From TrEMBL:
Pfam families: ApbA (PF02558), ApbA_C (PF08546). Gene3D superfamilies: N-(1-d-carboxylethyl)-l-norvaline Dehydrogenase, domain 2, NAD(P)-binding Rossmann-like Domain. This is 2-dehydropantoate 2-reductase. Keywords: Membrane, NADP, Oxidoreductase, Pantothenate biosynthesis, Transmembrane, Transmembrane helix. Belongs to the ketopantoate reductase family. It is an enzyme of class 1 (oxidoreductase). Catalyzes the NADPH-dependent reduction of ketopantoate into pantoic acid. The lineage of its organism: Bacteria, Pseudomonadati, Pseudomonadota, Gammaproteobacteria, Aeromonadales. Pathway: Cofactor biosynthesis; (R)-pantothenate biosynthesis; (R)-pantoate from 3-methyl-2-oxobutanoate: step 2/2. Residues 193-314 form the Ketopantoate reductase C-terminal domain. It catalyses: (R)-pantoate + NADP(+) = 2-dehydropantoate + NADPH + H(+). Residues 22-167 form the Ketopantoate reductase N-terminal domain. It comes from Aeromonas sanarellii. Its EC number is 1.1.1.169.
Length: 315
């Protein structure tokens, strides 16, 4: 079928009693990951909250990077009756992770891996405390995604995905990265996932608030208008990272930021999308987390503080 044309035949797949992946959180990125996992032959169940029961869609409307659109039949369940879970992939917004997982406390079988893929930091440790008998894995990803309607998703950019252990039990779960790679094209395991989380946080601190406040595509940050503020953000983040034992420099962080700006030039950041749709942003888990660490170390971060306050006031 030529690129960009629609295949209206619902792609049905037979699911075993226990899908390989249960995905909690079906926003833009969650919908894209559920689609890619399904298309790779890994049966996936989407776990929905009760409020979605009256608004079910007959399938996921998925558009791939090459513009091919198709409807995918993906199994769905609700949080009150989740069914058997082999692996739980959590892709809610950072601020919703704990409330989304709380109904599963005491219900999720011991040993079931919990994979967290959200922006920001400070959440994984709380999940590990809630589920002391489960491997908890933190992840970072740079895939781009867009949601344009109810269960209508577009994959807007291929990126890297990295997983790593939050608790000791998770160290035996490196094989999950290999299985995600079957769907995503690349996924890796990194025992030092904390470093990658900090690097992703630095990029998010720079790109997300500015694009949301000024209503810009990522690529528009490459102009001279934002050169000074991006450098100042990176200086502040580097100071905090160094205090946290993460060797880096402001120049290194700025190079990372500008690389992402270039690679995702046509994309809208998740914070931009959230603000445009009137949804809660992830500013607390991104810039808010940075401010908390800065306060612990007595480090002044006035530029990031100003951006944090501006986003909070504009929500």
């Amino acid at each position: 079928m030529p690129s960009g044309l629609r295949d209206n035949n619902l792609k049905t797949r037979r699911h075993p009693v226990s899908p390989e992946w249960t995905l909690l959180g079906c926003g833009a990125l969650g919908g894209v990951f559920a689609s890619l996992l399904t298309l790779s032959g890994q049966p996936t169940r989407i776990l929905l909250r009760e409020r979605h029961r009256a608004t079910l869609h007959p399938g996921i409307d998925f558009t791939s990077l090459d513009g091919h659109t198709q409807l995918l039949a993906i199994e769905r369940a609700f949080i009150d009756k989740p069914g058997p879970i082999r692996r739980l992939l959590v892709m809610t917004k950072a601020g919703q992770v704990i409330s989304a997982l709380t109904p599963l406390v005491g219900q999720l079988a011991a040993g079931v891996p919990i994979v967290l893929l959200h922006n920001g930091m400070g959440i994984a440790e709380r999940v590990a405390a809630l589920f002391p008998h489960n491997p908890v894995i933190a992840g970072v990803t740079s895939h781009g995604a867009l949601q344009s309607g109810h269960f209508v998703f577009r994959h807007t950019g291929r990126g890297e995905t990295w997983l790593g252990p939050v608790n000791e039990a998770a160290r035996s779960c490196a094989h999950l990265a290999d299985e995600l790679a079957r769907a995503l094209g690349q996924a890796g395991w990194d025992e030092q996932i904390l470093t990658r989380q900090w690097q992703k946080l630095a990029v998010n601190c720079a790109i997300n608030p500015l694009t949301a406040l000024y209503r810009l595509k990522n690529g528009e940050l490459a102009g001279p208008r934002f050169a000074d503020v991006l450098q100042q953000i990176c200086v502040e983040v580097a100071d905090v990272m160094q205090a946290e034992g993460q060797p880096t420099s402001s120049d290194e962080l700025l190079r990372r930021v500008m690389t992402v700006v270039e690679l995702t030039a046509d994309n809208y950041s998740s914070m931009y999308q959230d603000m445009e749709q009137g949804r809660e942003t992830e500013i607390e888990a991104i810039t808010g987390f940075l401010l908390g660490k800065a306060a612990v170390h007595g480090i002044a971060v006035p530029v990031n503080q100003g951006l944090y306050q501006a986003v909070k006031e504009k929500r």
